[in-house]
Design a protein that fits this description.
The protein is of the alpha+beta class and 255 residues long. Helices cover 38% and strands 20% of the residues. It is built from 8 helices and 8 strands. A hairpin with a 5-residue loop joins strand 7 and strand 8.
Length: 255
């Protein structure tokens, strides 16, 4: 029978939340050793025996609630079942490399819950071996964070990126296409990267790019995020999601 196996608590201030729950319930909260910022929560019951495990993560949206995850045999099956019962899918099926798959749904009463499927063979993230690919991936993560983005509106800055030394003797257009396909994105559609994908790109950047290249990548990503706002006829503020992505990149790059 399906049962709750995990809970997830969003926090605006991780250290503040850790102190609160540690002192209140004596929970053990430790940083997860993985590509994204995530803290594992270990609980015990009244008898001191191991209880339900959970996670603590940076809040991604002001209205993001605590989410309980129910373990099932197949995320695909239960997502379809939830939709057939007039529920909704908030986050589609996503892989967690080497662990399993999850999706986040909404019931008929507008309550949010997660569905979890164990699968040690799950793999989410493409290998980024070429430094030029990593550089492009950092730029693309910011470009498509804007729901109304158009690469054409950013071409002047995109051409500046293409002319950089890191792309010397490389087919820039082919690399650009490869990055979009590697993350299952379409350059013609504003489908944002998930945070764990951005964390993976940052990890690859810290491994593959020099400090100077990482600094340059951040600078050009910032210019791209504001590119279409500086073109005649486009007078709008930077999208909230773009700011979140830029902050993730700035915080994660070791520069």
């Amino acid at each position: 029978m399906a049962t709750i196996v995990h809970f997830e608590i969003p926090a605006d201030d991780i250290e503040r939340a850790k102190e609160f729950y540690t002192q209140l319930f004596d929970w053990k909260i430790e940083k997860h050793d993985g590509p994204m910022d995530y803290w594992m929560i270990s609980t015990t019951d009244a008898k001191g025996e191991k209880g339900l495990e959970g996670g603590l993560m940076q809040r991604q949206d002001p209205s993001q609630p605590i989410t309980n995850y129910v373990e099932v045999d197949s995320v695909d099956e239960y997502v379809a079942k939830a939709e057939s019962l007039k529920g909704a899918v908030i986050v589609p099926k996503m892989p967690v490399t080497g662990v399993g798959y999850f999706a986040v749904c909404q019931d008929t009463e507008n309550n949010v819950f997660g569905i979890w499927e164990n699968d040690p063979d799950a793999f989410a993230l493409p290998p980024l071996e070429d430094p030029a690919e990593v550089f492009i991936a950092l730029q693309v993560a910011v470009i498509i964070a804007d729901e109304n983005y158009s690469v054409d509106e950013m071409r002047m800055i995109w051409y500046e990126v293409e002319a950089m030394d890191i792309f010397k003797d490389k087919d820039f257009k082919a690399l650009e296409t490869k990055v979009f396909k590697a993350f299952n994105k379409k350059s013609s559609e504003p489908v944002a990267f998930q945070n764990f994908e951005i964390d993976w790109i940052i990890k690859c950047a810290n491994e593959k790019l020099s400090a100077e290249q990482r600094k340059l990548a951040l600078n050009t990503a910032t210019k791209l995020a504001g590119a279409d706002k500086n073109i005649e006829g486009y007078q709008k503020d930077m999208e909230r999601r773009e700011i979140v992505v830029l902050n993730l990149i700035q915080k994660g790059l070791e520069i």
